[in-house]
Amino acid sequence: MKRPTLDPDPVDTRLGARLAELRAERGWSLGELAERSGVSRSTLSRAERAEISPTAAVLNRLCAVYGRTMSQLLSEVEAEPALLLRAADQPVWEDRASGFVRRSVSPPHAGLRGELVEGRLTAGADIAYDRPPVPGLEQHIWVLEGALSVTARDITHDLGTGDCLRLRVWGPTRFRCAGPEDVRYALAVVLP
Questions:
Q1: What separation in angstroms does the CA of 80 have from each of 16, 110, 152?
Q2: Which pLDDT score, from 0 to 100, does residue 1 have?
Q3: Residues of the chain whose pLDDT is less than 70?
Q4: What pLDDT score does 185 carry?
């Protein structure tokens, strides 16, 4: 029995097209991008064709190669950014494999350095980033509900509801929700 083909998510389709454009702008083959990002050619190809939705870790690696934050990249696949963005219209991106949901509260603007993001991790979620999308990126992580462990520079910070951590990101980071409850947090990102 043949399974029905699901149409790709429109955001994944636009994201795939933008990733292909960025690679083409630089004149890179899939192999060159794979070497620069550490992401397999197969994964890159499937993401560009919207056959898969890239994980947060994969997007982070691509953002690092292209010198963008994740919010900047995701905003490039949206239509015209507005000055006022109603809650119902804020772009949401989900990494189902890791249990991570990211909502761009304030879409980035080419002339501004700050952005605000809401993150949600399901209980047990554990996301490791091998590098920041932009070295020296400033982050303010404010836990709104639940508990979150953030590891940066080999130091783990355990945050509870209401706690806020400020750091500059130069190397690997890890966001972990040990549970038993999901965690919701606000992330303010400021470019260096």
A1: 18, 12, 35
A2: 43
A3: 1-8, 78-82, 107-111
A4: 98
Tell me 20's DSSP state. H
Q: How many helices (H) and strands (E) does the chain have?
A: 5, 10
What span, in angstroms and rounded, lies between the C-alpha atoms of 103 and 85? 12
Interacting residues of 29 by C-beta distance below 8 A, sequence separation 6+: none
pLDDT digits (tens, 9 = 90+) for 79-115: 555 678 789 988 898 998 899 999 989 865 655 778 8
Helix (H) / strand (E) containing 155: strand 155-159
d(CA 136, CA 138): 6
pLDDT at position 83? 75
**How far is Cα 47 from Cα 189, in angstroms, rounded to an integer?**
25
Return the structure tokens found at 57. Answer: 């870790």
Nearest Cα neighbor of 73 from 129, 119, 15 is 15
Cross-strand pairs, 174: 128, 151
Q: Structure tokens of 115?
A: 């952005």
Residues 121 and 61: their CA atoms lie apart, in Å, by 20
Q: Write the Ramachandran bin of 182: left for phi over 0, alpha for psi from -120 to 50, otherwise beta.
A: beta
Nearest CA to 144 out of 105, 192, 190 is that of 105
Q: Name the burial class of residue 107, with classes exposed (0-12), middle (13-18) and buried (19+) by CB atoms within 10 angstroms of its CB.
A: buried
Q: How many CB atoms lie within 10 A of CB 37?
A: 20
